[in-house]
Amino acid sequence: MRAMKYLTLCLCLAILANGIRSQTQPPKEEVVRVETDLVDVPISVRLANGSNAGGLKAANFLVFEDGKRQEIEGFSATTAPFEVALLLDTSGSTRNDLQLIQRAAKEFIASLRLGDRVAIIAFTTKTYADRRGPAVDLIMKLTDDRAALNVAINRLQTSFGTPYYDALETVVEQIFSEKPSTEFRGRRALVALTDGVDSTSYADFESAKDVITPANFISYFIKVDTREYFESQLLGDCESAIRFSSAQIRRYYKSIKMNASAEKASRFCELGEFERLAVSKRLYEIADNEMSQLAKTSGGTVFPIDDLTDARNAFRSVASEIGTKYTLSYYPSNEKRDGSFRRIKVELKGLPAGSTVKAREGYTAPKN
């Protein structure tokens, strides 16, 4: 009997202690994943014969972040729609080929799938308080209305400068400013027809890249080779020749890292003909490198063309690649919000030998 009382007393004390502990120690909070932490990875897969691989499932992919395998949370097939920002460079040497640009752009839009949405951005010339100058022109926001897009393309104008970096920032700030709806997650792309040689932007490449990278869209460039035409207009009397802008001259000197005490020309007419060609060569090299950077890190492609007569075929290639993109998503196992760059690697599983995959190379983690 005494043992029974003792057992009852111990049981009561245990219950009481439990109650006190539950009041003094708050329950563990449930970990809730927020959608903004979800990492989207657009993917294209080619078989050994060069054709695009169709009908793939999430089980055909392995994804790694900084070498650690991640669990795939979501997967979109190639039939899911895309949102496309179409950037058309209507400046400089393209001025005489506006109709070619318009026809190629219309064919590109027509080759996209039903449900794909397109916005159009180009360059124009605007009148400011005391001068006329080039400007970025958002001529159509995202829409799937093909007739409206064609009307907008008919309104394309030309400019006497190339605010290319400003246009890249405008894509993020005015076209992709809002988070995508569920059906477009990880399925946004920039398609730019340009030579990539900026002349008049307020932004520079580094600031534009800092804006673009967190936006997580794929970048495709149809790179027009305008160098021969441009350099043919550089030589001769400096008053009648095509000129570099002061920003281009500064970019050139910065890129070749001249000694601070070295003499530098600040105006076009101070440059000899040999140096003009050297500046031009370096500016085109910079543009090529910048386009390659943006395409490679985002999982996109650069399509070089000799002139605008080749633009239609290049646009077809872009439309084909967009139409065969898969998208997978995952919550990163590294939950630190430290602003670090995380490398992504995607591998294939269960596909024939010789199959290859192309995906974005990484992303920048959010920072508190």
Task: Describe it.
With 368 residues, the protein is of the alpha/beta class. Helices cover 33% and strands 24% of the residues. It is built from 9 helices and 14 strands. It has helices at 2-24, 98-111, 146-154, 164-175, 205-212, 227-232, 246-256, 273-298, 311-322; strands spanning 39-46, 61-65, 68-70, 72-76, 83-88, 117-127, 132-143, 188-194, 218-224, 302-305, 326-330, 341-348, 356-359, 362-364. Helix 5 (205-212) links the parallel strand 8 (188-194) and strand 9.
In short:
This protein is an alpha/beta fold and 368 residues long. It has nine helices and 14 strands.
Residue fraction in strands: 15-25%
Category from helices, strands and their pairing: alpha/beta
Q: Gyration radius, to the nearest Å?
A: 27 Å
According to DSSP, the number of beta strands is: 14
The count of helical stretches stands at 9
Please state how the strands of the largest beta sheet are arranged side by side. 7-6-5-8-9-10
Please give the largest β-sheet. 6 strands, mixed
Tell me the series of helices and strands, N- to C-terminal: HEEEEEHEEHHEHEHHHEHEEEE
Global geometry: globular
Model regions low in confidence, pLDDT < 50 over at least 5 residues? 1-17, 19-34
First-residue to last-residue Cα separation:
63 Å
Mean pLDDT comes to: 85
The helix content, as a percent range, equals 25-40%
